Amino acid sequence: MVGLAAQKDFPIFSHLIHGHPLVYLDSGASAQKPRCVLEAMTRFYETDYANIHRGVHELSQRATARYDEGRRAVQRFLNAAHDDEIVFTSGATEALNLVAASWGRTFLNAGDEIILTQLEHHANIVPWQLLRDQVGFTLRIAPLQPNGDVLLDDVTALINEKTKLVSVAHVSNALGTVLPVEAIIAAAHERGIPVLIDGSQAVSHGAVDVQKLDADFYVFSGHKIYGPTGIGVLYGKRALLATMPPYQGGGDMIESVTFEKTTYQAPPLRFEAGTPPIAEVVGLTAALAYVTGIGMEAIAAHEAALLAYGTKKLAALEGVRLVGTAPHKASILSFVVEGVHPHDVGTILDQQGLAIRAGHHCAQPAMEALGLMATVRASLGLYNTREDLDALVDGLKKVREIFS
Ligand code: PMP
After folding, report:
1. How many angstroms does the Cα of residue 91 sit away from the middle of ligand 1?
2. Of 3.90.1150.10, 3.40.30.10, 1.10.10.10, 3.80.10.10, which CATH number belongs to 4-27+295-403?
3. What pLDDT, in 10s, does the model give residues 12-44?
4. Which has the least CB within 10 A, 237, 238, 285, 333?
5. Mean pLDDT, to the nearest integer, of 135-155?
6. Residue to probe by mutation, ligand 1, list 221, 332, 360, 364, most atoms within 8 Å of CB
7. Closest residue (by CA) to atom 12 of ligand 1?
């Protein structure tokens, strides 16, 4: 079930915000949690919880089984070929930093180039800059079109003999643009160049098949797909992960330790130093079961219809300008209201129970390219309805009245 019928699965919708029913249009920042996720985590803490891997006792074995089951659930969700291609991290940000620190530090040298796009989230820019400043490679940036699109030709035009990696978003968090990732991957692979896809804004809006995409790395965060915070995923092809040194040192990632020499576990454990987010893996497992139970196609179709509806409504609203109108978009409506700062729009809408985001959305280069400091962003989830978008339009009319 999607839309209003799904809202009963989410306890948050039974609470009023400033005396109004909640209209939650901020799932791009973080999605709300269905009761099944909350209950799975509580039940796990109440009945099966212990630290994993190191224990011989019953609870430790049960917790380890749940953790391993979570890895297989993510493998199935992404259609990865092997469960050892799934590394648990604290989020997409850590997954990106892991690839930069481990793969990047090993394989990137002065004079090399990596390709990003102008619409990347800061999490897919800054880790590469930090490494660039130490190693001396170059970031090549595929430009943003005025409508928020990134063109395949603009990405492939940057590929040359120095290119060592292409790292791009699947869907832009600021604008909703869906990038032609399958074609980008195919073009990069023709030259033997690996591709990282930041799927943070993609996984909750439609089915993702990493084998079909042929992505080399694919990252996402649990909290944007109705799971808990503190858990994320790095998918990496087995052959690639096998070439990568540890990212952090600590317990669980070693085979044996002496002061002279330490040997490491094979991936994925090599990259999961220390006590991992165990209950969060249980929560993510429940979240993936929830969305796949509804069906990713059903969610995609519901959100696509809402996006079309919202786009039409906002486009017809005087004084409102949509930002990001690429032909292929997912679940995000970014816009500006003439003469009103996005933060003021956000504050006024909040008073009416509407949760939207205002700001640069951690994509300052994209904002700059479009000549903006900030936008208002309404982002959709499976629980949104046409009525939510009508409420947004009514709220924006009030904003215009106040500022007229
Ligand atoms: N990439 C994109 C496209 C995102 O939207 C986000 C979150 N806004 C991130 C990366 C980072 O995710 P997190 O903060 O959960 O690590």
Report:
1. 8
2. 3.90.1150.10
3. 999 999 999 999 999 999 999 999 999 999 999
4. 238
5. 98
6. 221
7. 92
CATH number of 38-293: 3.40.640.10
pTM, to two decimals? 0.98
Expressed in angstroms and rounded, the spacing between residue 122 Cα and the centre of ligand 1 is 8
Delimit the domains of the chain by residue range. 4-27+295-403, 38-293
* Residue whose CA lies nearest to ligand 1 atom number 8: 29
- Hey, CA dihedral for 18, 20, 21, 27, is it positive or negative? negative
What's the pLDDT tens digit per position in 208-258? 999 999 999 999 999 999 999 999 999 999 999 999 999 999 999 999 999
Cα-to-centroid distance, 314 and ligand 1 (Å):
26
Residue nearest to atom 4 of ligand 1 (CA): 200
Indicate the pLDDT class of residue 54, thresholds 50, 70 and 90: confident
Candidates 99, 117, 119, 121: which one to mutate for ligand 1, based on the most atoms within 8 Å of Cβ?
Answer: 121
